[in-house]
Amino acid sequence: MKVLKIIICIAFIVCLWQPFVFSGNNILEFRFADDTKKDNNEEVMMEDEWGKKEVFIDKECQLSETDIKFARAEEFFFSSEKDEAQKANYALYFKFTEAGAAKVKEITGRNVNRQLAIILNGKILFIAAIREQLSIGEMQLTGNFTKKETQAAAKQINSAIELLKVE
Q1: Contacts (Cβ under 8 Å, ≥6 apart) of 22
Q2: With contact defined as beta carbons under 8 Å apart, do 150 and 92 qualify?
Q3: Exposure b/e, 58-74, CB count within 10 A at least 16 = b
Q4: Domain of 145: which CATH number?
Q5: How deeply is 121 buried, as exposed, middle or buried, from its count of CB atoms within 10 A (0-12, 13-18, 19+)?
Q6: Dihedral (C-alpha) 128, 133, 136, 141: value to the nearest 10 degrees?
Q7: Closest to 141 (Cα-Cα) out of 159, 126, 120, 153
Q8: Can you spell out the DSSP letters for 91-146?
């Protein structure tokens, strides 16, 4: 009976991790996004707080979880011009590996004013505009995120990073 429980436990773990190990897809991808169709991108329907819209996502992945040292949820406070009171919001923070930081510096330096889609488990999490070259190996994504969303995203990314260390 004990052997059967161990086999079931191992089978369950393999099934849980199979998409990470065997699918060949990245858990986290950074890809360029455009407003127009090009040869190297594909149309994707995206829904945000303003409704559905089509975006065109490049087929080539620029960065993935292999380029990240860790991710974490961060709380930060801001106040608007209309409201003096500070409000808590949450961000997803990335610390890149040395190689990842070099890629980020090169990619952002070459592509100022382009859009970069951050895709987590096949879902567009965020589309950010590159405003300047990032040269410190860190990135903070802010938006209308909840604490639960940022913590869940950080946990998924860090799980993928840990899995890569095992391989």
Answers
A1: none
A2: yes
A3: beebbbbbebbeebbbe
A4: 3.30.1360.200
A5: middle
A6: -10
A7: 126
A8: EEEEEE-HHHHHHHHHHHHH-TT-EEEEEETTEEEEEEE--S---SSEEEEEEEE-
Contact 91, 74 (CB under 8 A): yes
132 located within any domain = yes
User: What is the average per-residue pLDDT within 125-147?
Assistant: 86
Token digits of residue 159: 């799980």
Please say whether the beta carbons of 40 and 57 come within 8 A: no
Does some domain include residue 8? no
**What tokens were used for 149?**
């969303």
Residue 69 CB contacts under 8 Å (≥ 6 apart), including other chains: 95, 96, 97, 100, 161
Averaged pLDDT for residues 61-89: 82
User: Average model confidence (pLDDT) for the chain?
Assistant: 78
129: CB partners within 8 A, 6+ apart:
113, 114, 115, 116
The DSSP code for 39 is T
- The Cα–Cα gap between 89 and 103 comes to 28
Does residue 9 sit within a domain?
Answer: no
In terms of pTM, does the model score above 0.90?
no
